[in-house]
Amino acid sequence: MKKAEGIGLKNVQDVYAGPEGELWELIMGRQIHIGGWQSSKALADRAGIKPGSTGVDLCCCTGEGMRFLVRYCGEAKMIGVDATLHVIKLGKARCRYEGMADKISFMRAEATATGLDAECCDFVWGQDAWCYVADKPALIAEAARLVRPGGTIAFSDWMEGAGLGDADAARYLKFMKFPNILSLDEYNELLKGRGFKIVHAADSGLFGRYADLYINMLNMQLTGDALRIIGHDAELLEAMGGEMDFMRRLAHSGRIIQGVIVARKG
């Protein structure tokens, strides 16, 4: 595990209640994870998500992942958990607009202690968001508590790859507001410790290509939109571009990855 000092939940809330969160949605779309719709479909297929089942999305942001599951996988009910009030309000408005408010609900809570009933869902879902949670063992324990016997935890996350040094990790975590990141093996061990069988665990292989895409979009098409979001501060945009290029180099070298894990309970 690579850790960063002084980064906590308040930093993450500030990101997603402010211009930085809007900027991520600009360049990545409403599905703020690598691979968008295709990655969601691949994860749902690997996890064997069935129509009519119920799920909990931990760190759901505005709930685009839940809307995907309801619309394309036929989920009967989804509960989204997030600690940032701004994204919950936005998510509820989007669900009402898209006619999904009867199947999708939101609650404001930390993903490590949701307050939901034990064994309340068929699966727990997450996409590229658990990197923001400081206490990963507590997060996995809560996910395991929520899933019924035979149920599934299915998620992707930005993870530590091979050869990530401390200095590079510190710079990366500071830019992304991640308190820490785990490797695939570390996540697997946490899940096994909770009685889960690992069905799939692998690097998606997408991070480098998508980092290229996001930077190209900013440089070639969305520069004006990005400047509007950050108050037309060209120096800030240039600095952020430099950090994104650094992140791209880490991804292409395999030092950071998008890991994908599906695990089954019992």
Describe this structure in words.
The chain is of the alpha/beta class and 266 residues long. It has one domain (2-205, 256-265): Vaccinia Virus protein VP39 (Rossmann fold, 3-Layer(aba) Sandwich). Helix content is 47%, strand content 22%. The strands form two sheets. It has a seven-stranded mixed β-sheet with strand order 4-3-2-5-6-9-8, sandwiched between helices. It has a two-stranded antiparallel ribbon with strand order 1-7. Helix 6 (136-146) links the parallel strand 5 and strand 6. It starts with a strand and ends with a strand.
Write the topology of this structure.
Layout lengths: L1 E2 L5 H8 L2 H10 L7 H12 L6 E5 L5 H10 L3 E6 L2 H13 L6 E5 L12 E7 L8 H11 E14 L5 H11 L3 E2 L2 H10 L2 E8 L3 H14 L2 H7 L4 H19 L3 E10 L1
Parallel strand pairs: 2-3, 2-5, 3-4, 5-6
Antiparallel strand pairs: 1-7, 6-9, 8-9
Helix pairs in contact: 3-4, 9-11
Total strands:
9
- The N- and C-terminal alpha carbons lie at a distance of 27 Å
Tally of separate domains: 1
Number of H/I helices: 11
What is the CATH topology descriptor? Rossmann fold
| Structural Rg | 18 Å
User: Which spans have pLDDT < 50 for at least 5 consecutive residues?
Assistant: none
Q: What structural category arises from helix and sheet content?
A: alpha/beta
Principal-axis shape: globular
Give the ordered list of helices and strands. Answer: EHHHEHEHEEHEHEHEHHHE
As a percent range, the share of strand residues is 15-25%
User: Roughly what percent helix?
Assistant: 40-55%
Report the CATH C-level class. Alpha Beta
Based on the coordinates given, report the CATH architecture. 3-Layer(aba) Sandwich
Mean pLDDT over the full residue set: 97
| The CATH homologous superfamily | Vaccinia Virus protein VP39
Q: What spatial order of strands do you see in the largest sheet?
A: 4-3-2-5-6-9-8
